[in-house]
User: Fold this.
Amino acid sequence: MHIAGLQKSSLIDYPEKIACIIFTQGCNFRCGYCHNPELFEQREPLISTEAFFEFLKTRKNKLDGVVITGGEPTLQKDLNEFIYEIKNLGFLVKLDSNGTNPNIIENILKENLIDYIAMDIKAPLNKYEKITNTKVNTDNIQKSINLILNSNIDYEFRTTIIKSQLSYNDFEEIGNLIKDAKNYYLQKFIPSKILDKNLMNEKTYSDKEFKEIKQILLKYVQKIEIR
Assistant:
């Protein structure tokens, strides 16, 4: 595994659980608002797999689970084996993904390797390439959404929101895209350490506007939360 970082404890990244977070290297998107642009390329791992598992063994009965994020974790060739080892130590696993590799997600779900999955919804499908600055097979995005909607594990969808990128009509389309989803999180854009410095002056929606967006989405999704 190409592990770039480890957060030893978090109370917010795995709902209702205490978890550590590992950050994997490598991502196939180039979203301008990304807070982890240093993870785009796979380089020499900063933390060895062996060192991570030595740490994890010391956290039995202290942590509930492990969050695997990135980057894009499904680009890791040994992801399945890595999760197997985590599960064998008795920890829950949450996977964060952009949904571009549905075959891997399908296999992981079939093998019952994860307990929770969070998928980023970047935009309506017709805006994906504009937001991610990459060529996107949107059929794969739709397939991953369907796999998650029909899975038997806990899940969430989430979208980081810059006002100039996503309109009210876009949220109607996203609602249709993830129709009947249990959980959808609207994430306020925070201009800090991001890939595209030109976005530093961009704004997210106001609290009042977020409430209006929430009402739009409640026609499609069971639960909406704002982060």
Observations:
- The chain has one domain: 3-226.
- The beta strands are 3-10, 19-24, 65-69, 92-97, 116-120, 154-161, 184-188, 224-226.
- The first helix runs from residue 49 to 57.
